[in-house]
From TrEMBL:
Name of the protein: Homeodomain-like DNA binding domain-containing transcription factor
Domain of life, per lineage: Eukaryota
tRNA processing found in the keyword field: no
PANTHER family xrefs: TRANSPOSASE
Annotated organism of origin: Phycomyces blakesleeanus (strain ATCC 8743b / DSM 1359 / FGSC 10004 / NBRC 33097 / NRRL 1555)
GO molecular function: DNA binding
Lineage, broadest ranks: Eukaryota, Fungi, Fungi incertae sedis, Mucoromycota, Mucoromycotina
Segments of this protein annotated with the region Disordered: 45-65
UniProt keyword Glycosyltransferase, yes or no: no
Keywords, in A-Z order: DNA-binding, Homeobox
Length: 278
């Protein structure tokens, strides 16, 4: 039986929690037996207090928390401004702010999870242009208008749907692979175009990709024919938009704002011209 140092165990969990390592990869990097590392992780996950294996003994009363409310406020404020900060960085900044404070990375991790419910999640990346001056000005122009999402807006969007979509996970007996029969081909992806408003569903359209071929010149000068599928293009969306406008006119729904995302088929000038004309 081999005993591992608390530093090795702490490094193991730093790699798993902070760096996203698998248990096996973290074990190999820290020199810990893979099966032992798996038991460490299982013990850690089953412990309500999220204590590192081997880092605690039988309780002798209520443990004293090193971090005060002032420390907590600093950590929460720093994370709000720096969501990608790692535990090493949090420890460094905390100790710089409060001289003489000595605390481990694992203690900071447990404090964030249990005291503030702050956990590590997949990062939602927001483009910088989303909050640029130009976009903010556009938002203000919309908010200054008489647009009301619950009264005078019509929403248009598209979604792809494949009839051969299959689940990626299945169940089977322990030690045996989960197998399932799937179609040989990938299937055709249909495009569903939909329009809704506060009055309900305005129009639903389905676009099936059309077969198309084109010629491409190779490096040797010969032309080859390439077959493929054509999805929803501007002319298709223009025809659908005309049907939407006809339905709105038929039901005497006037003066509506057309709300769409920034998909390429929504941006051509002919689309904007049609909306203004109707």
């Amino acid at each position: 039986y081999r005993k591992y140092t608390p530093k090795q165990v702490e490094k193991l969990f730093d790699l798993i929690i902070e760096e996203g390592f698998t248990t096996k990869a973290a074990a190999l990097a820290t020199g810990i037996n893979v099966r032992t590392a798996q038991n460490y992780v299982k013990t850690y996950n089953n412990d309500p207090e999220r204590r590192l294996p081997g880092s605690y003994s039988k309780p002798r009363g209520r443990p004293r928390n090193k971090l005060t409310e002032e420390h907590s406020k600093f950590l929460v404020d720093y994370i709000e401004k720096n969501t990608t900060a790692i535990l090493d960085e949090l420890k460094l900044k905390l100790c710089e702010k409060f001289e003489g404070l000595k605390i481990s990375i694992s203690a900071i991790h447990k404090h964030l999870v249990h005291k503030h419910s702050i956990t590590l999640k997949k990062l939602e990346k927001i483009p910088a242009a989303r909050n640029s001056d130009r976009v903010i000005a556009l938002r203000k122009a919309i908010s200054d208008a008489d647009m009301n999402f619950s009264k005078n807006c019509v929403f248009i969007d598209e979604a792809g749907f494949n009839l051969h979509t299959q689940r990626n996970h299945g169940r089977s007996l322990k030690g045996t692979p989960a197998k399932g029969t799937v179609p040989t081909g990938k299937g055709v992806t249909f495009i569903i175009l939909g329009t809704i408003s506060q009055a309900g569903i305005i129009n639903i359209g389905v676009k099936k990709p059309e077969s198309a071929s084109s010629k491409k010149r190779r490096a040797d000068g010969k032309e080859v024919k390439i077959n493929g599928k054509v999805g929803t293009r501007t002319e298709h969306f223009l025809a659908y938009l005309n049907n939407v406008m006809d339905t709105l006119d038929k039901n005497n729904i006037k003066g509506q704002y057309i709300v769409m995302d920034n998909a390429p088929i929504h941006k051509p000038k002919v689309i904007k011209a049609l909306i203004k004309e109707r």
